[in-house]
Amino acid sequence: MDADAVWRVIDDERGRLADLMDDLSESEWRTPSLCREWTVREVAAHLTLAHTGPLSATGSLIRAGGGFNRMIRDTAIRQARLPVHEYPRRLRAMIGSRRTAPFITELEPMIDVLCHAQDIARPTGRPYPMPATAAAAAADRIWSQSFPFRARRRLRGFELVATDAPWRAGAGLRVEGPISALLLLVSGRPAAVADLAGPGAAKLAATFPSNSGPATTDAGASSPKER
Questions:
Q1: Example GO molecular function term (predicted)?
Q2: Is 208 exposed, middle or buried (0-12, 13-18, 19+ CB in 10 A)?
Q3: CA nearest to 220, candidates 117, 109, 131
Q4: 118-137 burial: b if 16+ Cβ within 10 Å, else e
């Protein structure tokens, strides 16, 4: 995907996710998300921080004692004090902007909105299909990097094969399924395992501790404690 296509996906997904947020009940806002230690509300709050500038980010990092993961978690918790109607409003206000957080490409906000949408939708029981071409591009980006997701290290010994997109990665026991599930898998979300099959699926499931899941950090621009 070229940059323009990526930004079109980001705009579309921000709008779609804002529509989903508009429909969340009070109890759904409090639901634990797929991100360990974060509620749906905190994930939504975090998504509205995608335009954080260098000065603000530096100040938050200093405030967190230099801990990157702590900074991401703390900023989301502070942002989660806003009224819930602010999250869809702020997400829609980003549509059309090409601004990113410091030191990242346009692929990171696409990863962010694709993965965090599932962090919200799945625990609240909302059907929320993911665009396959965008998911494949996001999975390629994650797989190509050693940091922050560490996907190649975590998934060594498995061949991942999408059944609905021309995407595969790794070598070893075959694990197959929709590209949406594979994107969640490479970004460290064990909820995806239930959607996967193949000779390596059972062994793959056993590699996830019962309390595992992505730490409370950005799916794209930030680093997890462990993905």
A1: metal ion binding
A2: middle
A3: 109
A4: bbbbbbbeeebebbbebbbb
Give the number of residues written for the chain.
227
Smallest Cα–Cα separation from 221: which of 154, 141, 151?
Answer: 141
Entry pTM? 0.86
Q: What is the pLDDT along the chain (227 residues), one digit of tens a residue?
A: 999 999 999 999 999 999 999 999 999 999 999 998 899 999 999 999 876 655 455 544 455 455 556 666 766 778 788 999 999 999 999 999 999 877 789 999 999 999 999 999 999 999 999 999 999 999 999 999 988 899 999 999 999 999 999 999 999 999 999 999 999 999 999 999 999 999 999 999 998 865 566 755 454 333 333 32
